[in-house]
Amino acid sequence: MPDHSRRTNRLLSLLSDDDYERLRPHLTHVAFDYKKSLYEASRPIEHVYFPIDGVASLVITTSDGGSAEVGTIGNEGIVGLPVCLGDHVAPSSVYVQVPGTALSMDVRAFRGELERSPTLVLTMLRYAHAFFNQVAQSAACAHLHRVEQRCCRWLLMTRDRMPTGDFLLTHEFLGMMLGVRRTTVTDVMGTLQKAGLIRYRRGHVTILDHEALRQRACECYGVLKLEFDRLLGDTAIAPRLDKKHRLISEVG
């Protein structure tokens, strides 16, 4: 696995050299195809994924067939968090929402490394805390902020996880994320396009004015960004955990 691949995922960048070198032989590049199932509710999790680009959605499906997104995972995290917390199944499913690529690892090998390395466990627990904060902030956001504000927040969060400002986005997933009907999605995206903030054609979004989009987004975007940086470090610096469990910055 080329060394540059580790720096494209925040959690892998946080690991000590020893931890990363033990994971590296087990990591495989995989495609994050649109709607690909990464694991299903109440079924054993067989692989964990470290996204490089693309976005995965944590989805809850009710008994009447309704679905709602409750969290998103991009290049800041790991798909398969229940494994890090000692479980092998979850009541939710995870699907690829925005296609891209990831590094995949067999869950048995990953669990073995967790048992071997306290520093690896600590890194995953820090991410678990950050992800819990994301879910909590998003729940509050859904109750307190307008659809347009929430849509801008999600577009900005997705842009942060992608190599460019152009990415696939369907009405289906955006409606699921916002908890609204497709007609509402059409109205909101149309408003943002008329204002010159985005271009939306044939299921693809292009961010045209990042700063204006940020001004229209609710405060939750900034709150979540600061919280991830607090817990996982600045991605531009790519800090990691050393053998003494301290956060240090990469030098050289």
List keywords for this structure.
Arc Repressor Mutant, subunit A, Jelly Rolls, alpha+beta, disordered C terminus, 11 helices, globular
Q: Layout of helices and strands, plus pairs?
A:
Elements: H1 3-6, H2 10-14, H3 17-23, E1 28-32, E2 37-39, E3 47-61, E4 67-73, H4 81-84, E5 93-106, H5 107-116, H6 118-144, H7 147-161, E6 166-168, H8 171-178, H9 182-194, E7 198-201, E8 204-207, H10 210-216, H11 220-232, E9 240-241, E10 247-248
Antiparallel strand pairs: 1-5, 2-5, 3-4, 3-5, 6-8, 7-8, 9-10
Tell me how many strands there are.
10
SS field, number of helical segments: 11
Distance between the termini: 21 Å
Order of H and E elements? HHHEEEEHEHHHEHHEEHHEE
Looking at CATH, which topology of the largest domain would you report?
Answer: Jelly Rolls
Instruction: Quickly name the level 1 CATH class of the largest domain.
Output: Mainly Beta
Oligomeric state of this protein:
single chain
Q: What's the pLDDT, averaged over the residues?
A: 87
CATH architecture of the largest domain: Sandwich
What is the alpha-carbon Rg in Å? 18 Å
> Structural class given helices, strands, pairing?
alpha+beta
Molecular shape: globular
How much strand? 15-25%
Ranges with pLDDT <50 over ≥5 residues?
235-252
The description of the largest β-sheet is:
5 strands, antiparallel
Describe this structure in words.
- With 252 residues, this protein is an alpha+beta fold.
- It has 2 domains: 163 residues, Sandwich (Jelly Rolls); 72 residues, Arc Repressor Mutant, subunit A (Orthogonal Bundle), CATH 1.10.10.
- Helices cover 45% and strands 23% of the residues.
- The protein contains 11 helices and 10 strands.
- The strands form 3 sheets. Strands 1, 2, 3, 4 and 5 form a 5-stranded antiparallel β-sheet that branches. Strands 6-8-7 form a 3-stranded antiparallel β-sheet.
- Helix 7 crosses helix 10.
- The longest helix is centred in the middle third of the chain and has 27 residues.
- The radius of gyration is 18 Å and the shape is globular.
- The protein starts with a helix and ends with a strand.
- The C terminus is likely disordered.
